[in-house]
Specification:
nucleotide-binding, 37% helix, Prot_kinase_dom, Transferase(Phosphotransferase), domain 1, 3 strands, 3-stranded antiparallel β-sheet, Kinase-like_dom_sf, 5% strand, Ser-Thr/Tyr_kinase_cat_dom, 7 helices, single chain, Protein kinase domain-containing protein
Amino acid sequence: MKPLDTLHNLLQKGSLSWAQRINIAMGIASALEFLHQIEDPLNPPYLLRNLCASHIMIDKDYKPVIYDFSMISGGILTDRRELTNQYVDGCHGYIDPVGARPGAWSERCDIFSFGVVLLGVITNKVYSEEDFTSGKPSVHEWAWGEYRQQQSDSGKQNISLVHASIESELLFYSRDGIKLTNLALRCVEYDPLKRPTVKQDHGNSLGIDLIPHGDLATGLANKLSGT
């Protein structure tokens, strides 16, 4: 592996193309799909529990590599889903405030974290421990506020939060921005049961038009179903 930098740093620089962003999001979704779908009747699924942009390294091919597994739970490892006082060990701003804080960890907590990462991928926004200490609103709090404000200002229901610098790219299609915005916001729904899962659902294709008749970005929502 020849790493470029963490996703956190690359998003701050705003140097990623739309195609690279989709490739990264697909890779992260695939990793969660693999961890959550390991079938073992004797053991619970693997949960990352601390997925955040700082824990994702991007290699020279713009593929994501999750490298921090310090809070992983499930599978053949210790089941730590019910442990309390674990919240501070995670990534502030990325950890599910509903499911994780009481210790009731589930796959949907990882989905929440993925949603925050996806919001960062399309908006260039990240969150750090310094942001948390200073009381800065988290990415998902900002996103919901911005989404509702734009709905109110425009009178439209479907809003894209994609950063303006990305919208000018040749391979960007505005309807994809709306779809990815909606997908990210579904992932960070306050009610965990309203969030998608990473079970394959080919009837729920996102249909991104990044590359006509290509498959680089057409499967992201396929990995996230509402069941």
